Amino acid sequence: MHASAQTCGRMPGAKIMDKRAGAAAVFQARRWLLALILLTVASSTLVRAKITNEEIVTMSEAQAVAGNIAQMPCDIEPPVQGDKVSLVLWYKEPSDLPIYSVDMRKAQGTHWQNVSLGSRALFKHAESPAKLNLEAVKESDAGLYRCRVDFKQSPTRNSKVNLTVIIPPDQLRILEEGSQSHIPYYVLGPYSEGASLNITCVATGGQ
Q1: Gap between the Cα atoms of 41 and 130, Å rounded
Q2: pLDDT tens digits, 133-187
Q3: Measuring CA to CA, which residue among 131, 88, 95, 144 is closest to residue 116?
Q4: Are 138 and 130 in contact (CB under 8 A)?
């Protein structure tokens, strides 16, 4: 009887320890679950997007003279009938942060552009193909751009555009044969009919 009484006297303390251990385990599990949920939400909303070359659908070239308008195409046509575009994002490599975006869930689309573009960009989604127009192109605008298109149903589409900016020459000189002097006002002659003419054009600067 005495031994039984001692055993019964220890049982409430053991139950309390079991409850505390169980409560700690539940609390730890909830913390892990909350961390997992936050990580999932963050991953789904982050606009950073790195992709591999295998995911690129098309690669195209675009050229523009410095000071003019560059037009970079992007295919936003849904691959299946009835599907619609929800979001268009433009990136300039090597950055994985967007420089321009269009939220197409509204009728007119909500446009946003990075301050680095200086309000020079406009995505014309109504044209075919759609284009990102970049006004007053500068030499620093040259590079590789990526257009990412998110559809409501279809998988995301990526395409790249390599933009080349042409810099005009700083100076042009027209030299007549046997002379190193520039021809004034670019006017030659007079020459007799049938005479041979050999001139040289020298361009300085530009690329």
Answers
A1: 31
A2: 999 999 999 999 999 999 999 999 999 999 999 998 887 778 777 677 777 777 7
A3: 95
A4: no
Cis amide bond preceding 155, omega within 30: no
The answer to whether the CB of 141 falls within 8 A of the CB of 71 is no
**Helix (H) or strand (E) segment spanning residue 5:** helix 2-45
d(CA 86, CA 141): 27
pLDDT in tens, 50-92: 555 556 678 999 999 999 999 999 999 999 999 999 999 999 9
Token pair 């268009």 in the structure block, residue: 88
What would the two tokens of residue 123 be?
């995505």
Paired strand residues for 175? 182, 200
The two structure tokens encoding residue 171: 């100076």
